[in-house]
Structures are given as structure tokens and as C-alpha cells.
Amino acid sequence: MSLEQTVPFLPKDAEILVRVSPSARVSKKVRDNLARIGGPLSTHAASIRLLEPLKIRFYLSREWTARQELVPCKCLINVGNDKPEELESINSAYQRISELVEPDRKSRGGSVYQSLLAEWNGKWEFLARIREDVYSPHRSRYDTAIRDFHEGLPTQPLPRISSALRRDTRRIRELAALDDNALAEGVTKEVRKSTLEVYEERIKRFATDLKDPSRLADEAFWQHRVHQDVWMFAAQHAPPLPKERVGFDNIPDFLFPTADGYLDVMEIKTPATSILVEDKGHPGSFRWSKEASEGIGQVSNYIFSVEEHRREITERLEAKYGGGLRVIRPRGFLLIGEYDERNTTQRDALRRLNGEFARLYVMTFTELLQRARSLLKVFQEEFSLRP
User: Fold this and answer.
1) 318-375 pLDDT, tens per residue?
2) Beta strand pairing status for 332-335 and 360-363?
3) Cα–Cα distance between 100 and 23 in angstroms, integer?
């Protein structure tokens, strides 16, 4: 059975009432053609009569959300004209009525679901209520399709969906329209393939940018890149929160929520920034570079500021995002520089120096790229094992 369905909504000859507020300058003839709705609505209404059955289409959008859309059907209105006027859809009829009855309105029409009423089960109901009743028997099929789609995705947050993946959703919907077996098998296969392709594309672009001399020292570019590819941290962090939404100056440009609902801070430098310098007085020993030391100091100050304003930040986050984020002993991350993967001496030194911190971690762009590639391998293995 296809996931795109068109089902009956209202029968032929059904009357639809349009709530209107007639302008003071409309003619008496127009006013005489308006009905009066009593009760709590207490308003004027114009009438639309269906010349053919009105149907509604259910389908899945490109973003895999369930959509309901009324199918155009011929209808008739009789508002201030010598003879009834035929329109191609109830939406165009609504706009035409608004034009005739409410000429002073800046915009014509509105939401047909919230403004139009029809008789339903012995009562006059808004089309929004009728839509819910008509959709109800089909809801479980679409909920199942959406759940199956998301279960085919990796458990980590996806990078921003590319245009290629959006095109692939058309193919997915074609498969899903064949039958229920296609939904269970073909959709999952296509989703997994598209997901891996998106990750591969993002990793390849990240690696290419790391080799581009014009990008290496551009801090604004790398801040934007990391915000887009926060998934590379292997679900350690969710999408970042801009500073202006938190409301304090002495914090980094972005705060990073953790996967389990806490708040961390991150300072992002560039791949070209120096990390370690060799201690000439002790051959084979390394210490933090001046730039890295300054970055570590910044992150430490950010941690202090976030803790100091913990209550205010929590309140503002709750107001903006509805709660769920907690500010308790935030950790700090400094993303800075690169190292030669073949230089084990530098890698060992970086690990030793990082080991001195309790709540701060210095990560290189090299390590971030390694994490992303390891994450991709996990997904490839997971998808190959799953039926």
C-alpha cells in the first residue's frame, strides 16, 4: 500500500462557512448574502458550496514529516454577484470572499483549517478538527514509516543534510510507495547508504580544508566548520548554543550541550596555531606554546564564569529552550593546531600534558579528523551487520 494516499474529506454539495468581518463600506447586497453565526463565535459568515467531493492527500515530506494537503476542487460562492461565481479550490474561494467582503484587509484569506467550518457529525466544526478525525485512521502507518526511517539512521547526530541526501529521499519515497515490504527493506537500505555518503563527504571536505593554506589561519572559518560538524565529536556534544542567547560576555562564542544534558565550553583556534614547543634545556621534553597557554587560560576563565553565573545561565536556557540543560561543573575544551601523526614523541608529550588537567582537554584538529574517521568505520560495520 502506498504511503501517499488521497481520501474523502467532505462530500459533493457540502456547505462550508467562511468566518468574515465585513467592512463598513461593503454594499447592502453583500451584507444580505452573509449568514450570521450565533453562539460563542457570533460572527458573519459567507458560504462555499462544493461542486465535487473535497479530498485530502496524506504524504511524507522531504524531511520525513507527515503532511496533509487538501486537493483542489471546484466550488461555488454567491457573495454580492448577480450570479454565483465558480472557483477552482476552497482556498481561492476563501481569498475571493475576503476580497469582496473585507476590502480593507491588507492580506487576503488565511488558514482554511482555522477559519472555515463545515458540518461534521451533527455539529459545525473547523476544518482543522475534521482533518484530525479523517487523518486518525491513517496516523499509525505514517508514524511507523517515520520511526522506521529514523531507526535506519545512526545513533549519532547527523551532519547537515546535503542536497544529495534530499534528492535521495525521493527515491526512498518511491520505494516506500511500492508496498509495505519495500518500506521495511528498501527504505532502510537507501537511508543507510545515503547516511554513509553524507559522512564520507563531510570528512573528505574537512580533510581537504586542512590542506588548504588559505584556510589554515582563518579562525572564523574553522569556528563555522566545527559548528557544522559537531557530530565529529562522536555524540559527545549536541549542536552549539550561541553566546547571545545565553546573555553573558565573558564566555566563549558558543556553549556546547553534552549528549546527556549538561553544558561544556569550547574555545576554537585554528589548525595553524602552535601547540607545543620543545624545551631546549631538557631534550625530548615539550611544553605548551604561548598560543596554547593563552587558549588554556581563556578556557579556564570561561569555566569559572559559567560556574559563577550558573543560576542565571540556567534560567535563560530554560526560557530559550524549555529546560533540560544543567550547568554543573562544566568541562572545557580547546581545539587547536595539528601534529604529525608519525611523530610519536609529540603525541606522547601532548597526552602527558593533557593528563595534568582535571576538567580541561586540549584537542588537535588532527585528532578530531581521526575521531570522525573512526566514527565512520563504526557506522559502516554497524550497517553491514544490521539486516
Assistant:
1) 766 666 677 888 888 999 999 887 788 888 999 999 999 988 999 999 999 998 888 8
2) parallel
3) 9
pTM of the predicted protein model: 0.52
Q: Rg (Cα) of the chain, in Å, rounded?
A: 30
SS3 label, residue 228: helix
Q: Which residues contact 135 (CB under 8 A, 6 or more apart)?
A: 56, 58, 68
E strand residue ranges, the chain: 5-10, 15-20, 35-37, 43-50, 54-60, 66-70, 75-77, 85-87, 116-120, 123-126, 241-242, 254-257, 263-268, 276-278, 286-288, 332-335, 360-363
d(CA 323, CA 150): 24
Kind and range of the H or E element at 47?
A: strand 43-50
CA-based nearest residue to 85, from 45, 112, 30, 48: 48
Which of 2.40.70, 2.40.30, 3.30.310, 3.40.91 would CATH assign to domain 214-382?
Answer: 3.40.91
Residues 153, 197: Cα–Cα separation, whole Å: 12
- What type of residue sits at position 242? P
| CA dist list (Å): 267 to 284, 298, 355 | 28, 8, 19
In what order do the strands lie in the sheet containing 254-257?
241-242, 254-257, 263-268, 332-335, 360-363
